[in-house]
Design goal:
It is a single chain. The chain is built from twelve helices and 15 strands. By secondary structure, the chain is α/β, with parallel strands linked by helices. The chain has three domains: 57 residues, no CATH class; 204 residues, 3-Layer(aba) Sandwich (Rossmann fold), CATH 3.40.50.300; 59 residues, Arc Repressor Mutant, subunit A. The strands form four sheets. Strands 7-6-8-9-3-10-11-12-13 form a nine-stranded mixed sheet, sandwiched between helices. Helix 11 crosses helix 12. The chain is elongated and about 105 Å long. It starts with 20 loop residues before the first helix and ends in an 8-residue tail after the last strand. About 2% of the residues have low confidence.
């Protein structure tokens, strides 16, 4: 650390004049600030014995979009142009109006701040009109939804801006930041990537928890495939590790899904449909896939002139043989298909009406 010179000594060996009082005060303040930054942070001792903790009562968690978004920090990730922002607009409007998110999930009304940092006002207007084309006829008022197209970084005033909005609201419930890259602090030279990501996100998580708000941080997924949906989120595991919950929008050959996992929500995987800017829920993903697979099997059997075995059905439908065998037994039991002989299946012929 820089040494503090004697205040009544010259500033340099060839300078006979003492440091002026104003300059001396500024120099001392600078050294004190530097010393404070180098001192270890003081952490309050929040120890509590388990018996006392168990006797405490806590208010129930506030679900902003039941089953999907709860108070705290939620990361929403998805591939570019998949429709993350449309989902964010839909969620914002549903909460601000006390409507239904994704066409099905009823939301309690509250104030919403949407930081649409990749949009301009014209695009925001177009998207809202797409989602609420008859708002005047339906009597929908959007005065509880605040839109901003610019803000500060997390480390440079964002939390102050969020708090100004929070204190101006009657019932603040949801903040959406779209997109993380616009508010992310720059990584310092030599800084560990995981630590940098974790430290960047943590202030938002603490702010959301302290004020019992839901903060949704929108980001991208990586191009590389991942077995675990959370591994697909852009950046290191520091982003998902600091968040309370993670939602991942994904589209593959099996359809489009919204996967969710978190500290306070049950693991979910919902089949979704995206049509003209609107997201809608189709049902639990596994059940929807099974329904689609059943339809494929029935179609193949109807088109066949003779009964088919599991391997032939798998080849014609493009399904895995193990999945086909599993479904065939269930479909025979339910009467969807018949088994005229061992190992072969067909669609039952309906008797012509007399």
């Amino acid at each position: 650390m820089t040494a503090i010179p004697k205040l009544d000594t010259p500033r340099a060996a060839n300078d006979s004049k003492p440091m002026p009082p104003t300059e001396r005060a500024e120099f001392i303040a600078m050294i004190q600030r530097e010393a404070a930054l180098r001192r270890p942070a003081v952490i309050d001792d929040d120890s509590i014995d388990a018996e006392t903790l168990l006797g405490m009562e806590f208010p129930p968690l506030e679900y902003v979009i039941p089953g999907y978004v709860v108070e705290g920090l939620t990361v929403l990730a998805g591939k570019p142009k998949l429709g993350k922002s449309w989902w964010a607009y839909d969620a914002s409007i549903a909460v601000a109006t006390g409507g239904k998110a994704m066409g099905a999930v009823e939301c309690e009304q509250g104030d919403v701040l949407y930081l649409a940092l990749e949009d301009n006002r014209r695009r925001v207007q177009d998207r809202i009109l797409t989602l609420c084309p008859a708002r005047k006829v339906q009597g929908i008022k959007l005065d509880r939804l605040t839109i901003r197209n610019s803000t500060h970084r997390i480390d440079n005033g964002l939390l102050v801006e969020l708090d100004k909005w929070r204190l101006s609201c009657e019932r603040p419930r949801l903040i959406i930041i779209d997109v993380f890259l616009k508010v992310r602090p720059p990584r310092k030279k030599g800084e560990d990537p995981y630590s940098a990501d974790y430290d960047a996100v943590t202030p938002l998580q603490r702010y959301a928890s302290e004020h019992r708000l839901a903060v949704v941080l929108v980001t991208h997924t990586r191009k590389m495939l991942a077995d675990d949906p959370l591994e697909a989120v852009s950046g290191t595991n520091g982003v998902t590790g600091a968040a309370d919950a993670v939602l991942v929008l994904n589209r593959d050959t099996k359809g489009t899904t919204l996967y969710g996992r978190g500290r306070d929500i049950e693991e979910i995987e919902t089949a979704m449909r995206f049509d003209n800017g609107r997201w809608s829920i189709l049902g639990e993903a596994d059940e929807v896939r099974k329904s689609d697979e059943r339809r494929k099997i029935v179609t193949v059997l109807k088109e066949s002139e003779s009964p088919l075995g599991p391997k032939a059905i798998a080849d014609l439908t493009g399904m895995k043989a193990a999945n086909v065998r599993r479904l065939l037994g269930k479909m025979v039991k339910s009467g969807e298909i018949s088994q005229p002989e061992v190992g072969f299946y067909s669609v039952p012929f309906s008797k012509p009406s007399s």
